[in-house]
Amino acid sequence: MPEATLSQGLLIRNISDTARWVAMHRAIETERPDALFRDRFARKLAGERGEEIVRQFPRTGEWSWALRTHLFDQAILAAVRHECDTVVNLAAGFDARPFRLKLPQTLRWIEVDLPELLREKERMLRSEKPVCLLERVALDLADAQARRELFARVGSTTRKALIVSEGLLIYLEREDVLALGQDLAAVPAFRRWVLDIASPGLLRMVQKSWGERLAQGGSPPKFAPAEGAAFFEAAGWRVAEVHSVFQAAAKAKRLPFLLSLMAFLPESSGKQGGRPWSGVCVLERAPAS
């Protein structure tokens, strides 16, 4: 498809285009000689539209995309080592972890996303074989009743599940994130949840640089809890780990020079206030009182 055709109209048409955007950043990381991970499917899944989105969006903080994916990879592999038998990937997008991570063949991996996106993904990966037991569930997570039924069904057939929601929560309203967390905590077999959050300061930066284009496609960034990861305690979760994307980037030597100097400053894993900050958090289901 010619570039001129792609450029006409909205750059972000819908939430699925944000998945293409993220996939393209995974492709860019994969093609580095010092890549933190290799995703040989990413460029194909991103497509020409994903490439153009990256080309046209502001190129600030590009290091954060790769580090977020890397931190999620580490959290998932750690959960599998702790005998997690099921992974439920909410808003899975064009993620290819069931094909690229070193996972047990017996691991059950469930991808949940919108029907059209999953049909496109299945078509593009039809000839590929996942390393574990892969299921795809077409479902709009905004449908509370449908998601509760899915969670109940999965919870009744697993012993120890990990929930993954990479890049999802920032697009939700605060009350919707709370409701989702409560629905997940209501299932005893859902033991861990790995998610990413932004600070209010970072949300303001994102809204200023990308917000208008994302809003035009119906996916404006919204959620950045002032409480940090402690927000999820009200939903029945406790904070087990918080990993700063910035600090991870510094450790991987991915920061520009001036930013790398800031990495020597102490950093809290709690409230972040007005400072630009993002983190990958591992939550554990709080024990019943």
Please tell me about this protein's structure.
Strand 1, helix 5 (97-100) and strand 2 (108-113) form a beta-alpha-beta unit. The protein has one domain (61-285): Vaccinia Virus protein VP39 (Rossmann fold, 3-Layer(aba) Sandwich), CATH 3.40.50. The chain is 43% helix and 16% strand. Strands 3-2-1-4-5-7-6 form a seven-stranded mixed beta sheet. It has eleven helices and seven strands. Helix 2 (15-30) packs across helix 3 (42-56). The chain has 289 residues and is α/β, with parallel strands linked by helices.
Low-confidence blocks of residues: 1-7
**The number of domains:** 1
Radius of gyration: 18 Å
Extended strand count: 7
User: Which percent range describes the beta-strand content?
Assistant: 15-25%
At the third CATH level, what is the topology name? Rossmann fold
Based on secondary structure, the structural category is alpha/beta
Measure the end-to-end span. Answer: 57 Å
Secondary structure: elements and pairs:
Elements lengths: L2 H5 L7 H16 L11 H15 L6 H19 L4 E5 L6 H4 L7 E6 L1 H10 L8 E6 L5 H12 L5 E5 L8 H12 L4 E9 L1 H17 L20 E8 H7 L5 H6 L15 E8 L4
Helix pairs in contact: 2-3, 4-10
What labels would you give this structure?
289 residues, Rossmann fold, seven-stranded mixed beta sheet, alpha/beta
